[in-house]
Each structure stands twice: as C-alpha cells, then as structure tokens.
C-alpha cells in the first residue's frame, strides 16, 4: 500500500514570496569628527536610537576609533526620520556631526 504524503510545494513557494517582498533596509551611519562631544553622541544614541547607556558608550568609542559606525538598521522612512532628527539635534547644539544612511546589503 502507498501512503499519501501531503504536498508542501505551495507552502514553500508562499514563504519565498513573502520573504522577497520585505522592504529594503537602510543603515544609519554616524561619522566621527573632532568637535562633537562624546557625551552628546552618547545622549543622541540613547535618545534617538534607543540604545542603553552602555551600548551607546561602546558605539561612540567605536565611531571615535574607526571613523564611522552603524547606529541602527531601519526601513527607508524610519531611517530618513532618524537621520533628520539626529542632524537637527546636532545643529541645534552647534555640532558638525554627520549622520547618513546607506542600503543594508
Ligand atoms: N571624536 C569626538 C571627540 O573626541 C567624539 C565623537 C564620537 C564625535 C563619535 C562624533 O560620531 C562621533 N570629541
């Protein structure tokens, strides 16, 4: 007697379709400079990017040493808003901090 196995082909196809429809994601990048204070960067990472204070301090030092670092990965709308918010706060405080975004490969 042959036992009938359920056909899972459609389920697999459906999963593949769902995955490829996920929105493209963007990295928000913080760039080092010589004028923005370390404490301002830490506060920005806590306030705008919702880092813990310890994670913010660690990332600030990474950017300070390596020149840049990823503050977060978001869909395009959220990434644009984070870039705008962080840049506005930096300019209000008269710091030249550069915040950019790029596709997350
Ligand atoms: N290099 C700055 C200083 O020594 C600190 C700094 C860190 C600035 C990260 C920008 O994205 C930055 N005051």
Number of domains: 1
Output the structural class: alpha+beta
Small molecules held by this entry: L-tyrosinamide
Mean pLDDT: 89
* Helix percentage: 40-55%
Strand content: 15-25%
Instruction: Please summarize the sheet with the most strands.
Output: 3 strands, antiparallel
The spatial strand order of the largest sheet comes to: 2-1-3
As residue ranges, the low-confidence spans are 8-12
Gyration radius from CA atoms, angstroms: 21 Å
CATH superfamily: Ribosomal protein L7/L12, C-terminal domain/Adaptor protein ClpS
CATH class: Alpha Beta
- Termini Cα gap: 50 Å
Overall geometry comes to globular
CATH topology: Ribosomal Protein L30, Chain: A
Per DSSP, the total helix count is 4
Q: Based on the coordinates given, report the CATH architecture.
A: 2-Layer Sandwich
- N-to-C order of helices and strands: HEHHEHE
